[in-house]
Amino acid sequence: MSDGPGVTVLGLASSLDPASGEALLGELRRARNTALVIEAGDVTRVSTPVLQLLLSAWMTWRSDGHDFHIASPSQALAEAAALLGLPADFLARPDASP
Fold first, then answer.
1. Is the C-alpha dihedral spanning 97, 74, 37, 19 positive or negative?
2. Is residue 98 part of a domain?
3. CA distance 66 to 36
4. Which domain holds residue 74?
5. Model confidence pLDDT, tens digit, residues 42-83
């Protein structure tokens, strides 16, 4: 879903298993070369492969020079990211104060 020129907003499902990761991959491919906001407040379960997919997208967007923001990450998503040792700024806005 596009939210204005050059910005894409994607909403994550509540349960992110590998099958939903395949659908998410397609959405990420379509959003390439835009700023990306991922709405993650409804996530209650997340698999490691989907977290790896999100991390890869985050790194790709940063490498491309585009904004990538996970909005309102749920507690489940934040805990899973911390458990896997993902970078602290993965779930933080790049312009947020520490």
1. positive
2. no
3. 8
4. 7-91
5. 999 999 999 999 999 999 999 999 999 999 999 999 999 999
